[in-house]
Amino acid sequence: MTLKHKVFVSYYHHDDQKYRKQFERICNDVIVSQSVNIGDIDPNADTEYVRQKIRDEYLRDSTVTVVLIGKHTWQRKYVDWEIYSSLRGTKVNPRS
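User: That's the sequence. What structure does it adopt?
Assistant: C-alpha cells below.
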C-alpha cells in the first residue's frame, strides 16, 4: 500500500485548470488533492477571510504544495497568498 501525500496545488484557475486536472490524474496513485476548486471561495470576499480560509481549510493538513506556473500566474494575488501561507508555519497550521 502506497502512502499518499496530501498535496495543495496552487495555480491560476482561469488559465491552468486543465493542467491541474492533468497533474492530479497523472499523480493519482501518490497524492490526495487538497486544492481550492473553482467556486469554493467568493472572489469578492475580504482579503483576510480568503487567506484564513485557504490556510485553515485547504493547507492545514497538506504535506506538499505544488505551484503550477503558467503565462499569467505571476499576476495572481491568490497564488501569492497560497505560497505565503504554505511557507508560514503557525501553531495551528504547519508549513507544507
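The chain has three helices and three strands.
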